[in-house]
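Re: [help] complex structure
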Amino acid sequence: MNLGFGLPALLGGLALVGVPILIHLLNRRRFVIVPFAAMRFLQDAFAQRRRRLRLESLLLLLLRCLVVVLAALAMALPFVPEDSPLAGLAGGRRELVAVVDRSASMGRLAAPGLTLDDRTLGTLRRRIGQLSDERGDAVTLIFLGGGPELPAAIGATPSMALAVLERQLPPPRGVADFVTAARLIKDRVRPLRPGRLDVLLFSDLQRLSWADAGGAVGPLLAAAFEQGGGSLRVIDAAAGLPAASNMGVLDLASAQPLLPAQEPLAFTAVVRNWSDATRTGVECRFFLDDVQRAVQHVDLAPQGTATAELRLRIDTPGPHHLGVALERDELPFDDSRTLAFEVREHIAVLLVDGAPGGADALSGATGFLALALDPEGATRRFEPTVWDAGRLDEGAAQLGGFDAIVLANVGGLSTAAAEALAGAVQGGTPLLVFTGDLTEPAFYNERLPQLGLTLPAQIGAMAGDPSGHGGEDYVTLALPEATPGPLSLFADPRLAVLLQVPVFAWRPLQPLEGSRVLASFADAAGKTTPALVEGRSGRGRVLLFGTAADASWSLLPRNPALWVPMVHELLASLLAADPAETNLPVGQSPTLVVAGLPLSAQLTWPSKAVTTVERPDIQPAGAGRSRLELAGLPLEEAGAYLLEVNTAQGAQRIALAAVPDAREGDLRAISQSELGQALSGVEWQLGGDELDEEQAPQPGDGSLAQALLWALLAAAVLESALARWMGVRG
Amino acid sequence: MADSPGSSARPAAERRGASGRRVVPDPRVAERLAHLTLTASRAVEGFLAGRHRSPHRGVSVEFVERRPYVQGDDLRHLDWKAFARNDRLSLKRYEEETNLECTLVVDASASMAFPQDGRPTKYDYAASVAAAISQLVLRERDGAALALFDQVLDRVLPASTAPGHLEPILLALAERAPEGTTDLGAVLGRLVQRIPRPGVVVVVSDLFGPIEGLAAGLGQLRARRHDVIVLHVLHEDELRFPFDRLTRFEGLEDDTRLLVDPLSLREGYLASLEAWRAEVRRACSSAAADYHLLDTSAPLDVALSVWLGARMARLGVRA
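Output below.
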């Protein structure tokens, strides 16, 4: 019969059936004694009614015991499935918890114009439509992926839940976090809804989502069901669909960190074939600012990837969007992807010279740097400006106007200059520090951190011999095994020889926790010491080079084949924008650092709708910049956005993009046995018939409590009537 | 404090027996009964002139009627005045008033000790009834006798017309504690042997015994031309059975016990009791005995006056 109980512990109340029996027995011991003369008449009456009295007494006792049994059973909240012979008696209220997978994969088309999300929500509407406000039925909606987690109140009436489902809901996006849903049921729904919970879990059973869940879902739901009872029915939203044959854009990125105007730029798009069939001649169309610029074709092996590359030149500096689109398939969301980026016209670099030279352009600590950044006749990508260290005190307010700051053999700074520098770096201005003979380790290691700027390594005393020019006692640059970072250019074996430039003097660097060594100095014996260390101070990136930028300590500056690209790469690496700042996951709100004080902002959506934000939420970010937080503007649609920020100094235009989680393109489903492992610890059923509109409604397990309470009432009334008829009291 | 069941006056004199019981002739009872007489319904013999018919005709009798003279009648009874008035010969018929001898037969068996919760018992009530009737009889210069019984005649006081005879009667009633079983039939049979002349026999009892014995005893008294009055004393609890708690009833004259819920048996008990009373009434009617139920909850003076008044009216006796 599959009779279950929501509160089985209360079945212990059945033991109370002994109470009426005990009372009955005790009552037989509590009597008064009356010496009586007319015994014969009493005996006559007793003899006539003896048998009947016994039967009536026994019947009364049975009725009283039945009342106790019915009460205990009713309080234990019994329930039976709909196929039980007792199902007809189960007229109790239903407590439905609907967990709806609204991740991006649910955007898969089940039929033209009908996604899995549409089908699921339609099924849910029909299911909720079977419930009744009057009966006290309750619905809790939990959305995973697209939309708010709890779109309605916990335990809402069926009418309220239907009203939510009738609203315009955000499209499916993001990933489904079933562990969060299970925890939400256990920690928030169960405390408010103590009765039996019928949990319907709608999902396309995407392997990726369930793999992320591990085995945590089952124990959480089991804990939720432990008190009050519950049932879990998993409904395969993709039931009946053929094997998926989805392709999607996995990634779209620029090949170089810095995107200057009027220079060749390269972008790569990675396309993934999520199916088990070979796909050839897949068309990839590239769009720059909504204008198609190129079409390429790629071939994809089963479950394989392919790369399509776009090379172009963008003459107009400013915000731009690059898009790549594939032919539409059953899962549209990953058939296109957008990249937002900034094309720079000129990059203003401040070179702070700690040992200014004379008339010779190459004298001083920054001469070779300035030459490398702005060689005459070359494209002026960089605009270097040279200050001496004393100028920092006066120009502290101007630091925000530079895209990068380079310190070359700067011994120390005044407190005001150091604080200004720290503020600029904290606010996001990258910093490149070259050491030298004037470098004061104590200032950089101890004083500067106190003022808010911590370099990625401790600077040691000078090593080597600057006068060893021409000798064999020198070191050269060496790159680590895995060569990420700005000097990866020189990892090419054909260019590695360029690194064999002697460095005669250097300052040993002791990297701090969280920093990264990008290059080392290696002596003839192969012993290395960190040479180039990268770190962060606030929002700004910092590179620390352990030797001088002039030719006093090494021959690096005198080797333009190495020096120029190295300096460019170092600065390009520092200046590269973090794509994650402007390319956000769908549904996330942007937080940006802008110059000046924003007064208002306008956001243009992919649909070209415009949202204006007056008096946006801002925080100071140092060096005349502000952090702009648009918490109330989640980027719900995938695609290109344009943010215009109006400040007192003028308007700034920032390209933004909302990108989906490409992993959701993998539509491979979890097997039933794997699902069972994921849900171990809780009993569950696999459904799917509910998706068919023709199917009869399945109300789920019904409670017998109401029927038992009616029976209890009838038994109590019968007991009272019988007792009265018998003339029995108590 | 009431001195006898059903009475509201404090007695002028009282008798307390060895049992501690007080039996008093209630003056209020006596006052109420002052105008009433215990009239014998049939002609009885008496050795004192009283207000009772005598079957014997002679002097000192009450003139009753005239009838025409028939040859052979005794001329001593000729009504000469009537002859002088209308020249007709007629005879006077007289009834001779004789003394009443009243024997009070009081049940002193254990069943009369009900209830035992401090309230006046049936025996207290019966003793008061006997005392009142004794006082009434002696006031009328009739003879009063007392017989106390259980399964045998336990105590017998012969009849006497002396006014001071009331005291030993009261003492005998007070001294006796109700005990023993009941055998009314045997008792009445023996009693018949001890009463020399027909008189009034008043049986004051709850009659809890075999009906056959009662009928036989009443029949024997009837055969000896006694005027039998049966005063059936029952306690209000026996008549109405008001018990409502689980009760163990224990017999007063035997070892029977019964643990029952009284409410469930009340209807059957009352039916059985009523059926038995109907048999008792039939038995009394068959023996031409005057039957009257005395409910101990009724004031004694009221109960007796009602009964005596009804009896007098039935017999056509003027107060």
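The radius of gyration of chain A is 38 Å.
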